[in-house]
Amino acid sequence: MAVTGRGRRGRGRRLAVRLAALGLAAVAVWAAGLVRFATQIPDTVADPDAVTDAIVVLTGGSGRLDTGLELLAAKRAPKLFVSGVYRGVDVTMLLDVSKRSPSDIECCIEIGHSAGDTAGNANETAAWMNDQGYGSLRLVTSSYHLARALLEFRLAMPDVTLVLHPVLAESVKQDRWWAWPGTASLIVGEFNKYLLVWPRHAAGRLFGRPADTARAP
What structural domains does the chain harbor? Predict the structure, then answer.
């Protein structure tokens, strides 16, 4: 039996309604995930006194390097590794920028230049940790970045123990984050990046790469 024009229009409307419903459901799931992600961003350091084999700082956020240097001075680890440093920048230059005396701690700092993103940070750090024979590290990065960094580090080094050390930037308003456009945009962007990493992490666990031991913040 031939389909009339009215029948085709009816089917088209039903399809449009179903697609709209699916779209709304997807947006609702995404929004719920965003809220959960935002509420789980740490606002304290859970284990500030633990000693590890190394401190690892991921460049790119306010206060990260200074925090790593303070932890090194406090003897939370004998070595500090700074991942993702611009090529041409050496340890002395880093310490000069942070107003630290090179003679005090320069010997205990190493830097990596190959990382261009968080996955690169994890792979670069994994290679360095393997070369050093280390089995634990304190991961220093911005609080909003910590969840994604943890996924990448678990993928790159599943047997390494991680102590998580969030850095709290004054410019990031975690309390009532939705009311601050800059912070809201930052957290939304970070959540979307987290969603892109998570399937790789899940696949890694599914195919025999167990998650590492991590002390959550």
Answer: 54-215 (3.40.50)
> pLDDT tens digit string along 182-196?
999 999 999 999 999
Neighbours of 116 (CB within 10 A): 10
H or E, element range at 163: strand 161-167
pTM here? 0.83
The C-alpha atoms of residue 127 and residue 112 are separated, in whole angstroms, by 10
Return the ∠ at Cα 146 (arms to 24 and 37), rounded to 5°: 25
| Predicted confidence (pLDDT) per residue in 27-67, tens digit | 999 999 999 999 999 999 989 999 999 999 999 887 899 99
Which alpha helices (DSSP H) does the chain contain, by range? 5-39, 64-73, 91-97, 102-105, 118-132, 146-156, 181-206
